[in-house]
TrEMBL record:
Its EC number is 1.4.3.19. Residues 3-343 form the FAD dependent oxidoreductase domain. Pathway: Cofactor biosynthesis; thiamine diphosphate biosynthesis. Keywords: Oxidoreductase, Thiamine biosynthesis. GO terms for molecular function: glycine oxidase activity. PANTHER family: GLYCINE OXIDASE, SARCOSINE DEHYDROGENASE-RELATED. It is an enzyme of class 1 (oxidoreductase). This is Glycine oxidase ThiO. It comes from Vreelandella lionensis.
Length: 365
């Protein structure tokens, strides 16, 4: 029997496993597919909420702490696995910001470098970017990570740790309760038992917890994205305009996203979204009109009220914990949210006040 059973092998589940394994615990992680292949793979990898000043303090707290973790985490994983998560800290250009005053006030309050810039500055930083039609902002400290490779690196590291067992292609069919206590799960590969359970099922977390008659207000929100294969160096940093973004990779791949669709668990792509994403891409980087679209895909975000994740023990089930509902910011918030949960699991002083994230009866109502 493991100390901890983690259900869900996305970035949240894998970082939880890594933190617990680093603390000497024995972990089994079960994933219905392959670790790191759902929302963790499908996103863009910006290590910040798109417009961070528009979020409330619970999300901002997690984001601020997580942002500083990624440079060290990426280096660690590269050294341990040989897989480079490609953390890049080249800043972000915001074009056409209609609440720049609020953004600058937010930055001053936190001591964050953020400045209003003109078209010549934008052209200097990104010669191929369209000139801003309104206010433009520059945040030099923002970074991004190549999230599919981050997932590969986390999976490789966990697979090499003697106190971690990865069980993939493993579907949870129900919870096992004995003498009023949850002791594990039934799966298509047999029983998995543990002292404590952690549900990190992303958009599927609510479905999983229905087996305990727990109503978790987390729903799937589809996001479609595309990627161009462009000449390396065409774009050097993240550029954001009118809610859409272009994210460069070192090999010339340029990600463009994303849609927000209430479509249940449907992950199909469609021509309407493709055309919309292409228009946005060419409005940001006009030269992309001459580049081919190499990929088009969709993922499912775990939507939640106000985008505030649920982190903590479930009411009535003191050994069953949840870490889900990060909405568009799963990768952004992962280091802090998993650290905060590990603090609770191990009885450590919490990284921050856990109260806003607890899955209390009031939040689950």
């Amino acid at each position: 029997m493991s100390d901890f059973l983690i259900i869900g092998g996305g970035v949240i589940g894998m970082m939880t496993a890594l933190q617990l394994a680093d603390a000497g615990q024995n972990i089994t992680l079960v994933e219905r597919g392959v670790c790191g292949k759902e929302a963790s793979w499908a996103g863009g990898g910006i290590v910040s909420p798109l417009y961070p000043w528009r979020y409330g303090e619970p999300v901002s707290q997690l984001s601020r702490w997580s942002e500083g973790v990624y440079p060290t985490l990426a280096l660690r994983l590269l050294e341990e696995t040989g897989i480079d998560p490609e953390y890049r800290q080249k800043g972000l250009l915001y074009l056409n910001v209609d609440d720049d005053g609020a953004a600058l006030r937010w930055a001053r309050q936190l001591g964050k470098p953020l400045e209003r810039v003109d078209a010549s500055f934008v052209h200097q930083k990104e010669p191929e970017a369209a000139a801003p039609e309104g206010s433009a902002l520059w945040m030099p400290t923002l970074g991004s990570v190549r999230n599919p490779r981050l997932g590969q690196a986390l999976r490789a590291r966990l697979a090499d740790m003697p106190n971690v067992t990865l069980v993939e292609q493993c579907s949870v069919q129900g919870f096992i309760q004995r003498q009023g206590r949850v002791v594990g799960v039934d799966t298509n590969q047999g029983e998995q038992l543990a002292e404590q359970l952690v549900v990190c099922g992303g958009a599927w977390a609510a479905q999983l917890l229905e087996g305990l008659n727990v109503r978790l207000p987390v729903r799937p929100v589809k996001g479609q994205m595309i990627a161009y294969q462009a000449p390396p160096g065409l774009v050097q940093r993240v550029v954001l305009k009118d809610g859409r973004y272009v994210i460069p990779r070192s090999d010339g791949l340029l990600l463009v996203g994303s849609t927000l669709e209430e479509a249940g668990f449907d992950k199909a792509t469609d021509e309407e979204a493709l055309a919309s994403l292409k228009r946005s891409a060419e409005n940001i980087i006009p030269a992309l009109a001459d580049c081919p679209v190499a990929h088009h895909w969709a993922g499912l975000r775990p939507g939640s009220p106000e985008g505030i994740p649920f982190i903590g023990a479930l009411p009535g089930f003191p050994n069953v914990f949840v870490n889900a509902g990060h909405y568009r910011n799963g990768l952004v918030l992962a280091p802090a949210s998993t650290h905060l949960l590990a603090d609770q699991l191990l009885g450590r002083k919490p990284l921050m006040d856990p109260t806003p994230y607890q899955p209390t009866a009031a939040r689950l109502a």
